[in-house]
Amino acid sequence: MSTLSPERTERTERTERTERTERTERTERTERTELGKFFAVAAERLAAGHTVVEMFSGAVDAEWHHFLDDPEFRDFCVEHAGRPLAHVPRKGKGEISWVTAYEEQFGPLPEIWFTDAEGKVDTTALARYRDTGAVVAEWDCSPTGGDDDVAPKTREKATLR
Question: How far apart are CA 103 and CA 116, in angstroms?
Fold first, then answer.
């Protein structure tokens, strides 16, 4: 049985911590990037009169929640959506209505959209999307316009293909 010297053990632990930190930062950048793309699509859909822009990714939504109280959040919204956006609870289930608009601007949805807040990928939903181009999911929130806007009282169903 071999044992590592204390210096080697400390170096190994430091390397593992660094790799975990780099992995976390990479994931957070991906989630933040996708949040910006989502805001761009959401702003267009809201301007076109849609009242529901379904946030179905647990990972991207977790980043949104994390970012809400950040002083840079408002500027981020303006940069990506052209205006401030608010986060409102809005539950639903069905086909995600904005996928085609996203694909037209940015290409296919990346894996992060099929990842939950704990980092687990829904491989079944991802494979279905890759095979059919459709995303059927549940959501529990949506953006709405500006800081002082009130979410509409009427509910809009996701558009079916």
Answer: 21
* pTM for this model (two decimals): 0.75
**CA-to-CA distance for 24 and 102, rounded, in angstroms?**
25
Q: What are phi and psi of 152, to 5 degrees?
A: -60, 150
Of 111, 96, 106, the C-alpha closest to 36 is 106
List the chain pLDDT tens, one digit each, 161 residues: 556 566 666 766 665 555 444 444 444 689 999 999 999 999 999 999 988 899 999 999 999 999 998 999 999 999 999 999 999 999 999 999 999 999 999 999 999 999 999 999 999 999 999 999 999 999 999 999 865 443 333 334 444 43
Q: Which amino acid is at 78?
A: V
Q: How far is CA 82 from CA 36, 46, 62, 97, 101, in A?
A: 11, 12, 22, 21, 17
Question: What is d(CA 122, CA 57) in angstroms, rounded to the nearest whole number?
Answer: 10
Nearest to 61 by CA among 34, 79, 81: 34
H/E run at residue 33: helix 6-47
**Which amino acid type is present at position 37?**
K
Rounded Cα distance, 49 and 54, in Å: 14
